[in-house]
Design brief:
The complex is a heterodimer of chains A (about 325) and B (about 260). Chain A has helices at about 40-45, 90-100, 105-115, 130-140, 160-175, 185-195, 210-220, 230-240, 260-270, 285-290, 315-330, and strands spanning about 1-10, 15-25, 30-35, 55-60, 75-80, 150, 180-185, 195-200, 205-210, 220-225, 245, 250-255, 275-280, 310. With about 325 residues, chain A is α/β, with parallel strands linked by helices. In chain A, a hairpin with a 2-residue loop joins strand 1 and strand 2 (about 15-25). The two termini of chain A are about 25 Å apart. The longest helix of chain B is centred in the middle third of the chain and has 34 residues, at about 100-135. Classes of the chains: A alpha/beta (about 325), B mainly alpha (about 260). The interface of A and B includes residues 48 and 89 of A.
Chain lengths: ~325, ~260
């Protein structure tokens, strides 16, 4: 287990990380979420003993990173893509890495095959695309067969196929009982992969909870109704004891109704309906609300435009996550 | 603790698997030997027109090593790139995540530089000595003459020192452009110029290249108040100082 305790990093006047404390639970995917500039990468570098904390500490199974014997066998990390000498081949890059931690050389070929780089393994890494560089970085992280994996924005710059591949990889790593700690600035990405969430903004902890709790707290479903006779429908709903709120644009939202019940109710009262659609508030929206005060650079014009709710036809994030969870448990 | 043997092997693999290693070391050899040969040839042809004092202080051994003035620049590039490449590519963070013991990392890098540069330097110094002496004709000296073997070995040690010093500077300045921008003009221009400026040269004579040149002199150079052993010690002090500087900064700074 990784424990971050009162971690602080100050660069001159700016406080990049501010008394941050959290734990990364074992055998799960923990999403490390925050807007750009929130201090995610700084925190991750301190976890790997690359950056020196101003104060506070990070321990891995009770030990400081530099006390780990052959750390690649404990923690595999992908911090930035293409952290490779451009003139060295992918094979040789993994080779020196393996040798430094006495990892069997056969792992090099196995990892290259796993990430699909076997054919270009002898080519200079300088000619790699962003996606290939990312794959090489992931191969490096997996090299020592570590129980803990850390990925810093692993899907940045990847094409949809690559994103899917990384997503599935993280899920399968967690399914094998490994601890995965992955940073992102996209709630949507985390909702698909993470079991647990650590949200930070401006270096401070904003939330530390399970994905389930986050969904329960933030993803309320409702039914959007549009009718030419709103008065009549509101009365009918009120009579049936169903709460509703009017929204701009002539329609209203029914909080805890299900669409069949509302449809039946409208028919009984002879009210025409122009829209009857189940909705789910987006987690992205909840995340943006949570971090709104800590966004480093705002776009001009004050408040961020709140994104509208996603139609339920697109599988809602919570549902996708729950399906993923079921798959993992099976 | 990572095992030192493993880190050494890994650092050796790094050095061995980039093209710049072979290129820079080959250039160092070719330039040192080639320029030394040309200077020996010219000296032999011009010997008669030299002044009496020049003839009296003529040092056949160190003349054949004249090429190192230029050849050392390739060694500087080699050593700076050993560490600078890691910083310019961001690979240093991969390295330090794999080997968080920074002291060991620095020592292993230094060991690999010595292990590679010293043999190359030995081959270079003996080759340039024998070729140079052959081209000096009647003014030549032999390996068996007094102090000559010490000078030839001193030349190899000097080349290794230059590489280590550059490694230390590379660890301090990190960016290869910065390190090269400091070291190249220093050895190529600044030190030779300052060595000829009155008063300043009293300080400049303790610069590493001047101290190093004392290591390869057989005939005593009256303008420098110390001998070969002191030259070696001064050079070593420079090496240790830059490596210590690199060590302190590597230990303290964020990667």
């Amino acid at each position: 287990m990784i424990e971050v305790h009162e971690l602080t990093k100050r660069y001159g006047e700016t406080l990049a990380v501010d008394r941050l404390s959290f734990q990364v639970p074992q055998g799960a995917v923990t999403g490390f979420l925050g807007p750009n500039g929130a201090g995610k990468s700084t925190t991750m570098r301190m976890m790997l003993d690359l950056d020196r904390p101003t104060s506070g500490s990070v321990t891995i199974d009770g030990r400081h990173y530099s006390q780990l014997t052959e750390p690649l066998k404990y923690i595999g990390a992908l911090l930035e893509a293409a952290a490779v000498h451009p003139g060295r081949s992918a094979y040789n890059h993994l080779l020196w890495l393996a040798q430094s931690n006495r990892i069997p050389t056969r792992r090099v070929d196995e990892m290259l095959a796993l990430v699909g780089l076997s054919e270009v393994a002898r080519r200079r890494a300088g000619g790699f695309s962003l996606g290939m560089g990312q794959r090489l970085g992931i191969a490096a992280a997996l090299l020592g067969d570590p129980q803990i994996m850390m990925f810093d924005e692993p899907v940045n710059g990847l094409d949809p196929e690559g994103i899917l591949w990384v997503r599935n990889l993280m899920k399968s790593l967690a399914a094998e009982g490994r601890t995965v700690f992955v940073s992102s600035h996209l709630m949507s990405e985390m909702a698909l992969t993470a079991d647990h969430l650590v949200v930070i903004g401006r270096g401070r902890l904003l939330a530390n909870l399970s994905m389930n709790d986050f969904i329960d707290q933030n993803s309320h479903s409702f039914v959007r109704v549009r009718t030419p006779e709103p008065e009549a429908l509101l009365d009918a709903l009120a009579a049936a004891g169903v709460a509703s709120t009017a929204v701009p644009g002539g329609g209203f939202e029914v909080m805890d109704g299900d669409s069949a019940h509302i449809g039946d109710l409208a028919r009984e009262h002879g009210i025409a309906l122009h829209e009857l659609s189940p909705q789910r508030a987006s987690l992205e929206e909840a995340f943006m609300r949570m971090t709104a005060d800590s966004v480093e650079y705002r776009t001009g014009g004050g408040d961020l435009q709140q994104p509208t709710a996603e139609p339920a036809a697109v599988p809602a994030w919570g549902a996708a996550w729950k399906a993923g969870k079921r798959r993992r448990e099976n | 603790m990572a095992s030192p043997g493993a880190v050494l092997l890994s650092e050796w693999t790094k050095v061995r698997t980039v093209r710049s290693t072979v290129i820079t070391l080959l250039v160092a050899f070719v330039v040192t030997v080639g320029l030394g040969a040309v200077i020996c040839l010219v000296t032999n042809n011009q010997f008669k027109s030299m002044s009496e004092s020049e003839k009296l202080t003529f040092d056949a051994t160190s003349t054949s090593f004249s090429g190192v003035y230029l050849g050392q620049l390739a060694l500087i590039v080699f050593a700076v790139l050993v560490v600078g490449n890691e910083y310019s590519s961001g690979m240093i963070r991969v390295t330090l995540a794999a080997v968080p013991q920074r002291t060991m990392l620095l020592l292993c890098k230094a060991a690999v530089v010595v292990g590679l540069v010293l043999p190359v330097a030995l081959v270079t110094s003996f080759t340039t000595f024998f070729l140079g002496q052959a081209l000096l004709g009647s003014h030549r000296t032999t390996l068996g003459a007094d102090h000559v073997l010490r000078a030839v070995l001193g030349m190899a040690v000097y080349m290794t020192f230059i590489a280590l010093l550059s490694l230390g500077v590379g660890f301090m300045l990190r960016k290869p452009v910065l390190s090269l921008g400091l070291l190249m003009p220093f050895f190529f221009l600044i030190s030779p110029i300052l060595s000829n400026v009155p008063k300043v040269k009293n300080v400049a004579r303790y610069f590493p290249d001047v101290a190093g040149s004392q290591m390869v002199h057989v005939v005593t150079n009256s303008s420098i108040p110390y001998g070969p052993l002191a030259g070696f010690m001064i050079c070593l002090a420079w090496v240790l100082a830059t490596l210590a500087g690199g060590y302190v900064l590597l230990k303290r700074r964020d990667a």
